[in-house]
Design a protein that fits this description.
The chain is of the alpha/beta class. The chain has a domain of about 240 residues: FAD/NAD(P)-binding domain (3-Layer(bba) Sandwich), CATH 3.50.50.60. The chain is built from 17 helices and 20 strands. A hairpin with a 2-residue loop joins β10 and β11. The radius of gyration is 23 Å and the shape is globular.
């Protein structure tokens, strides 16, 4: 079978759907293909365990996309016309430390500052400065995030014009550990901020993570750990709804395996079953850049692109266990039992340093210094039957399972043989702080090792679902490969979006909107005019 459209899109993750929606808004007929049975990629909600329990397959928190103009200005009408709504849970975070102490973050910044003062009054003042200082530069970092590389001044140029730009020039190149240790004295507060910084799965000892304690904490203090009502898949449903209303089509169970190259130009794609889908205007991909490279002859890519892809760091793998329960975890805080949509366990700064070293060495993490315990049903009870909850325990982990007695290759069955035991170990650690999460309240559970995550979505290479390393070698004009950061790939007619492009992974929609800006520009449109057009207005003919 051969089908055609103006724009053929490989992959139905939220970024490629955002790109397709903006192109549809400009009047182009878009055809989106996805390998899975449902669209959304990392933004999907499924009944993975028991009927009525909607579990987010991957992402749950959507705080960062809330500042994207796609939602902040409702450029696609996803909020006004397609039912997308968000909850802002309070408390924001409940974090437990190795010594049994706990810290609660509230939406009211003054209440959070009072909580930090329990550990250190100077650190309470430093926390206030953290919020104030990032507030002064947030528009610069936001503009950089939501502007394609080469389509405006660089982050360095914008910071150089700011009165405190020299401080931020250094701060953003330091590691999160270095920044936090410089600004805060209490080990508890340091541990809390490093736990916050790791939310995007970038090791806290890695150069270039220095802005994350500011960025992540400020965002949570403004909008909490925002979650879409109905599950992460509600964002996908709104995007696919918009696309369907504007002449677009999403076809699932179609794994793209090959790019069609004709006269040196990308003319479409071929799926694993031999079907061809031809693009009259352009092809957009959210396929991982390492897999995208394999979909065309090696000679189609320049040597420099090969080098950039060969050296691309896919990032930190994850390990997750999902539970259906009859109770939400209650953390035994100094002020009595507390539950939070976003909670977890934070290691000391030295533990964070060791975790980074272990991740780089590929060593199994028996007791990760970062554990997330997510219970979205606390703020969105409709995700489960009455009285029920969904709980996710998430940690970083090495791609390789723990070694057997004869060495690293002696574990028969790989992760499948040891993942349940590891999940029980993590659950036992959580129970030290949330003792009510007993076996009696657990109705069902599902564990995903890094290998399981990769099997579910091969573009999450090694089970890494945040798009890859965002350090200095993989950011801005160097992402995904030096010379190809503006979403245009070396093959004419082929464009790339998704977590391997600027500014990176997570649920931000930034790569998707940025790719749309580039494509609209290349097609002769004024992106600002298209994007600001009322969402329900009929598209102009392409």
């Amino acid at each position: 079978m051969t089908a055609s459209a103006d724009i053929v899109v490989a992959g139905a993750g939220h970024n490629s759907l955002v790109t397709a929606c903006y192109l549809a808004k400009a009047g182009y007929r878009c055809l989106v293909l996805d390998a899975r049975a449902i669209p959304g990629g990392g933004a999907a909600t499924e009944e993975l365990l028991l009927p009525g329990f909607g579990i987010d397959t991957c992402a749950t928190g959507h705080t960062m996309i809330r500042v994207n103009p796609v939602l902040a200005a409702d450029e696609l009408g996803l909020i006004s016309g397609y039912g997308l709504r968000y909850a802002e849970p309070d408390p924001v975070e409940q974090v437990a430390f190795p010594d049994g102490e706990q810290l609660t973050m509230w939406l009211d910044p003054e209440r959070t500052i009072e909580e930090i003062a329990r550990f250190s009054r100077p650190d309470a003042a430093a926390y206030r400065r953290l919020l104030d200082e990032y507030d002064q530069v947030k528009s610069i970092f936001s503009r950089n995030q939501f502007t394609p590389v080469g389509f405006g001044p660089s982050l360095e140029e914008m910071l150089s014009a700011h009165p405190r730009g020299k401080i931020w020039a250094r701060r953003r190149q330091l590691s999160a550990v270095e920044v936090v240790r410089h600004e805060f004295s209490s080990r508890h507060v340091q541990a809390f901020l490093l736990w916050m910084a790791f939310q995007v799965f970038q090791p806290g000892d890695m150069p270039g993570t220095g802005v994350l304690p500011y960025q992540q904490t400020f965002g949570r203090q403004q909008r909490s750990w925002s979650i879409p009502l109905g599950g992460s898949g509600r964002l996908t449903a709104a995007l696919t709804g918009y696309l369907a209303g504007h002449g677009g089509t999403v076809v699932c169970d179609r794994r793209v395996s090959r790019l069609l190259i004709e006269d040196g130009r990308c003319a479409g794609v071929e799926t694993a079953d031999g079907e061809q889908y031809r693009a009259r205007v352009a092809v957009v991909s959210s396929v991982h850049v390492q897999h995208l490279r394999d979909m065309a002859p090696a000679s189609a890519w320049p040597e420099e692109f090969h080098y950039g892809v060969d050296t691309y760091d896919v990032g930190v793998p994850g390990f997750a266990t999902y539970y259906c329960t009859t109770a939400a975890p209650e953390f035994a805080s100094p002020h009595g039992p507390r539950s939070a949509v976003s909670a977890g366990l934070a290691g000391w700064p030295e533990d964070v340093l060791q975790m980074g070293a272990d991740l780089r060495a590929g060593r199994y993490l028996a007791d990760p210094a970062w554990v997330l315990v997510a219970t979205p049903t606390l703020a969105d009870p409709g995700r489960a039957p009455a009285g029920g909850h969904t709980v996710k325990i998430l940690t970083p982990q090495s791609y390789q399972p723990p070694a057997g007695p004869g060495g690293p290759d002696t574990v028969a069955g790989g992760w499948d043989a040891v993942k349940d035991e590891h999940a029980r170990r993590l659950l036992a650690r959580v129970r030290e702080h949330a003792p009510n999460l007993t076996d009696e309240v657990i109705l069902g559970e599902l564990t995903k090792s890094p290998a399981d995550i990769e099997q579910l979505n091969p573009h999450m290479i090694h089970g890494a679902f945040h798009g890859g390393n965002r350090g200095p070698a993989f950011s801005g004009p160097l992402r995904p490969a030096p010379g190809w950061a503006s979403h245009r790939m070396p093959i004419p007619g082929l464009y790339q979006t998704g977590g391997t492009t600027h500014p990176g992974g997570s649920i931000t929609g930034a790569p998707g909107r940025n790719a749309a800006i580039v494509l609209l520009t290349d097609l002769g449109h004024d992106p600002a005019a298209v994007m600001s057009r009322p969402a329900r207005e009929a598209p102009a003919p392409a």
